[in-house]
Amino acid sequence: MTSSWTLKPGQGIGSLQLKTTTQRPVGKGEVRIAIKANSINARDIMAAMGQSPMPLGDEIIPLSDGAGIVEEIGEGVSRVAIGDRVVITFNPAHQSGPFESHMAMSALGEIRSGVLASDVVIEEMAVVKLADSISFEQAACLPCVAVTAWNALFESGPLTPGQTVLATGTGTVSLTAMLLAKAAGARFGITSSDDAKISVAKELGADFGINYHQRPDWDLAVRELTAGVGADVVLETAGPPSIATSIKAAAQGGRVMQIGFKGFDGPPINVLDLLVGGVTVIPVMVGSRVMLERVLRAVEVNQIEIPIHARFRFEESPRAFESFMSGRSFGKTIISAA
Q1: Nearest to 36 by CA among 76, 93, 84, 80
Q2: DSSP H helical segments within the chain, as ranges?
Q3: How much is the pLDDT for 260?
Q4: CA distance 258 to 281
Q5: Model pTM greater than 0.70?
Q6: In what order do the strands lie in the sheet with 231-236?
């Protein structure tokens, strides 16, 4: 038997329900993964609240991020074996190369069933082996936020030692990007309205932090802190409310990587800021299985540890969602099988 949590999109996290069903047989080219750890992302809350841009059904199994052990393999499977430690990729249809719009239908935890379950059956091409040094909890932090951060930092242009990266907000994409960028020799700055979160970010490695409530002109603060140059790469996680300022904060020829959005209203973008500054605005999706493999190598070699805010047992999943939604988290929220 398989245990899984389901929710009804649009009815909130109060609709989470634990169900037990018969295990689905493993087909050709598929594997069964005993899930050992999951993590929650903002998109999971959007699905629960009916705010997902995808046309969701009446009931879904949430979460895209999970890691575990291969416990059964189907005919023709060659990439993994029973007993292998693995992590599941965010979007099984996106194996490598550029993202294509039709792949959106394959992202886990929305139209396609997610991984908040005791075990899942999935195609072998959707899993990547784990090094022994990477725990299941750490692996479960990677498929969405770490691959997104990697995509923004390294796949759309080079990030070289000594360059400056700026991230808006202290969410887990920003924090993970900081660890990856610092490992690559970059300087890293972060913005927040919370001095306490800025302080913790500095303890984790941020070179500078800016409170955007105290400095509404935080683009000028960025230039003051970079000898007038600005940020070579800006990770824009809020969208319309701050992207115009992010463009102003970018260095000549810099990149503004548009990752997420928190509302649709904000000051208009000044086209001259783009033209005169030679700034490029690039939308960022999550990323491919190949990118996840690169992230895993970077995490292993650099001994990167993603900050974890709270841990909950599988049967406490509703509490994990509540903790995530409190807005007080600084780091990932983990759900573990044990």
Answers
A1: 84
A2: 42-48, 136-139, 147-150, 172-183, 195-204, 218-225, 243-249, 271-277, 289-302, 317-325
A3: 81
A4: 7
A5: yes
A6: 208-211, 187-192, 164-168, 231-236, 250-258, 280-283
